[in-house]
Amino acid sequence: MNALKSKTAAHSLTTNTEVVMPNDTNHIGNLFGGKLLQWMDITAAIAAGRHCNRVVVTATINHVSFDNPIKQNSVVTLEAKVSRAFTSSMEVFIDVFVEDRITGEKTKCNEAIFTFVAIDQHGSPLPVPPVIPETDEEKKRYEGALRRRQLSLILGGRMKPDDATELKALFVAD
Ligand SMILES: CC(C)(COP(=O)(O)OP(=O)(O)OC[C@H]1O[C@@H](n2cnc3c(N)ncnc32)[C@H](O)[C@@H]1OP(=O)(O)O)[C@@H](O)C(=O)NCCC(=O)NCCS
Predict the structure, then answer these.
(1) What is the CATH number of the domain that holds 49?
(2) Count of domains observed in the chain
(3) Is residue 1 over pLDDT 60?
(4) pLDDT tens for residues 8-64?
């Protein structure tokens, strides 16, 4: 089997359902943000690992939005999928939903983007397979990933703003 053969985004889909217990909450009875970050990190790491069949580490958290508070006793579902892979790094989107216990209806309440890197036994980066986006949302996320990577590398001091061609194109007309 070719370890670097392209895989669909759907291949990495990872779903994790949790209940917000009292010790997961903050002082006003809502899910503590740090707890949600932990669930996001674990769910997204499994998705990245499924994509590349390697050990992965979190390289950076690109974006997190806590759009709606999540109450104690809520049923929370996290869905993570690799949106794009570069050489050794993979961008992963995590969508967070709260489920109405009576109707079963799921409402999206949070979203995050993490970057993982595949590593060998010495901690050195390893190449990962490309992603094939299929749905409209997967294609949109795939397209935006290069800009987000460039922004993250600039913020991390790993790229000069002048070299961020894809990102600059958003702001500078030809
Ligand atoms: C992530 C890690 C493996 C990167 O190692 P490195 O020696 O810097 O390797 P490189 O410079 O080759 O970077 C590897 C990849 O990570 C990407 N990367 C590193 N920092 C990044 C950032 N801030 N934003 C986006 N991508 C980043 C690089 O662009 C590169 O991607 P590519 O191979 O797809 O082009 C290393 O920093 C590490 O082990 N960090 C600790 C990870 C960890 O323990 N996480 C758990 C939480 S503490």
Answers:
(1) 3.10.129.10
(2) 1
(3) no
(4) 999 999 999 999 999 999 999 999 999 999 999 999 999 999 999 999 999 999 999
Asked if the structure places residue 164 within a domain, the reply is no
**What tokens does 64 get?**
């997190």
Q: What spacing in Å lies between the alpha carbon of 125 and ligand 1's midpoint?
A: 8
| Atom number of ligand 1 nearest to Cα 90 | 34
pTM as predicted: 0.95
Q: Whose CA is nearest to atom 28 of ligand 1?
A: 89
Which residue type is seen at 88? S
- pLDDT the model gives residue 173: 66
Percentage of the chain with pLDDT > 90? 86
3 state SS of 99? strand
Buried b (16+ CB within 10 A) or exposed e, 104-136: eebeebbebbbbbbbbeeeeeebebbebebeee
Structural domain of residue 94, as residue ranges? 7-133
Q: How far apart are CA 70 and CA 157, in angstroms?
A: 34
Cα of 5 from ligand 1 centre, angstroms:
22
